[in-house]
Design a protein that fits this description.
The protein is mainly beta. The protein contains 1 helix and 7 strands, in the order E-E-H-E-E-E-E-E. The longest helix is centred in the N-terminal third of the chain and has 4 residues.
Length: 118
């Protein structure tokens, strides 16, 4: 299972997207590198892979229009569907961390399966 991260530059009114990055990279020195030897050498400790979506590669505009309605999406290259709801919301005090090595049987997925690690 890939361990992906997504990063985006979203406008304050949540209507436009300047860029979107899906990657395996963390925001760390190991993933992005650090200058060493009197800033003459870039040391990268782990190599990562990602895909950067820039609107200029798909249309003549400087941004994508954000849409959440898959049925109204067009392939014009001007719209972008995000994998989360906007505006983003803070975690609540009742939210719980999901850990891979802890059983989660209280709420099965849409197929009726629960997560029960061995």
């Amino acid at each position: 299972m890939p361990h992906i991260k997504t990063y985006a530059r979203i406008s304050p009114d949540c209507s436009q997207l300047a860029w979107f990055l899906v990657t395996s990279a963390n925001l760390s020195k190991a993933a992005w590198g650090t200058l060493e030897k009197n800033k003459s050498q870039l040391m990268i400790r782990s190599y990562e892979l990602g895909v950067l979506f820039l609107p200029q590669q798909f249309n003549e505009h400087n941004c994508f229009t954000i849409t959440s309605d898959v049925c109204q999406w067009t392939s014009s290259g001007e719209q972008f569907i995000l994998p989360w709801d906007l505006p983003l919301t803070d975690y609540s005090k009742t939210d719980k961390h999901w850990l891979w090595d802890v059983a989660h049987t209280e709420k099965p997925d849409t197929h009726g399966n629960a997560w029960c690690p061995k």
